[in-house]
Amino acid sequence: MQLNDILKEFIFDCEVKNFSKRTLKSYRNNNALFHNYLRQEFKITNLEEIKTIHIKRYFKFLMKKGLTPTYANGVLKTIRAFFRYCLNEEYIEENPCLKVGWQKEGKVIINTFTDEEIVNMLGIYKFTTFLQARNKMIIAFLVDTGARNNETCTVLKEDIKDRVILLRGKGNKQRQVSISPLLKKYMIRYERIRDFYFKDKIVKVNNYFLSNTGKPLTIETIERVVSEAGKKAGVRDEIRCSPHTIRHWHAQEQLRNGLDVYSLSRLLGHENISITKRYLQSIKDEDNIDLAVKTSPLMNIRGGRR
């Protein structure tokens, strides 16, 4: 079967499963580049012709171009997904990708905001106008929940409960995150300003965060809100001011405050704990020592005499 035809079928299947636009783009582009390599280097255009050695050659080619092991593993993940689909559809009898090993990644250090930078970013926007209130609420929402950009865009009014917020993560998987008292206070003020702003306007969607014309926010809009806050707050040049960097800060702060890595993994919506462990590796030794004091068995033991 022609690779181009199967790739279109594979992407359509991903769309039916409601994968995010970013995931669809990654699956489409990475597999298309791989297929183009096969066509140019080996004159391969049919699925049945692909062997494990061809995939290994491709990754050797990528590593020679200077790709990081982490990036290469991301590409391998998308190619594996393609072959897994072909196997499930019985287009192939075995998955040639399974014999291609992951690239060994070094210790990943995730640099993120300082507490002072987060406080300064929260102070950039005020509860004065609708857009100012919305932008302040977006920063507070990201900081307190660790939500992904797309999860923030798609949260609906009915997803906001008394004590929790329902988020729709990758692959449309749902999870709950808590509402802290301070976040609740921000939400009450934002909702009052938002409802007053739209009281005489027709709004056809039920998203929690809206544009000034009553439409759902885009990923790019939230990127701009965070980027502008970072610039005005004087965030260091080496730190990328993005929603995902706030997510990194949230994860590390949760660990510093004593949350275990397993619970954090569930709150962040990670597929496996190995992803979450990267945040633990990035915490400085002195912070780990402070955390150990907080969780000291002797200090926290209950009952009996001491």
UniProtKB/TrEMBL annotation:
Keyword DNA-binding among record annotations: yes
PROSITE patterns: CB, TYR_RECOMBINASE
GO MF annotation: an example: DNA binding
Domain Tyr recombinase positions: 108-294
Annotated GO biological process: DNA integration; DNA recombination
Keywords assigned by UniProt, alphabetized: DNA recombination, DNA-binding
Full protein name: Tyrosine-type recombinase/integrase
